[in-house]
Predict the structure.
Amino acid sequence: MASDAELRHFLEIDDLSQDELQTVLDRAETYKRAQERGEDHLDLEDRTLGMIFQKPSTRTRVSFETGMTQLGGHAVFLGEDDIQLGRGEPLKDTSRTLSRYVDAVMARVFKHENIEVFAEYASVPVVNGLTDDAHPCQTLADLLTIREQEGGLEGVSAAWVGDGNNVAQSFALGCALTDIDLTIATPEGYGVDDPVLERARDLGGNPTVTTDPVEAVSDADVVYTDVWISMGQEDERDVRMDAFEGFQVRSELLAHAADASVMHCLPAHRGEEITDDVIESDRSVVFDQAENRLHAQKALLSWLLE
Ligand code: CP
Ligand code: NVA
């Protein structure tokens, strides 16, 4: 177990300073190149990651588990209903118990406050694998992908189109940390939370907020969207489908965006927030994003545990 003095959690992308974020992205690139050359980096030999999931996952689960294996360690999948958490054991007890066994915990939970409670009681690093408010591991992969596409981050022009959800909020903070110019287009009432926008401004960012997707994508290097109905919002489906009309990322919208890359954290709902032809087009970098989850999280874990 880590001592309190060294203990760092990753609950939000801005838990990393600009320099630390740069270090993690550089390390991710190093791991990616090493893997391409077939080199092993057993930097987490004999280490164990506990992975709590209160919501489904494909990318987060498999990339964390595979990443631990590739670094010589091990990951334990802990679905909510497989552990006593699902029967009402308090998070703070689960946190203190797991801290006695594993070297780090990654958790995907509903309320963001829950991961904060989990981290408060943990004596090992806690990583946010998605909450209702944030998805910082996704942002690491997104920034790595943009850096690969654009050759750098500073001054890149990005457009977020759709729901101002967990992925958007972490992306907004990530853009602020890396000097990406971000314009966020959402319907009225579905924007990024004001405190998150304020935090982005405090970090030196200057996100532009609009309700006009065409304004957002004009001159963008990158156009990013995500589902209109996130996990846990299924009951709002009808209202949301009405609210997001006109915000679909489709070829007509992208005609205003010259040769912008198209991003999506996946899973995508084709025909809702994005069309099939766009996601299958040469502009789409969605599977690079998905792959980069692996490299970015290996870098994050080895940095947190070194
Ligand atoms: N993007 C992402 O986190 O995907 P999963 O829900 O499949 O983990
Ligand atoms: N906004 C989506 C992201 C899934 C990776 C959700 O929370 O369901």
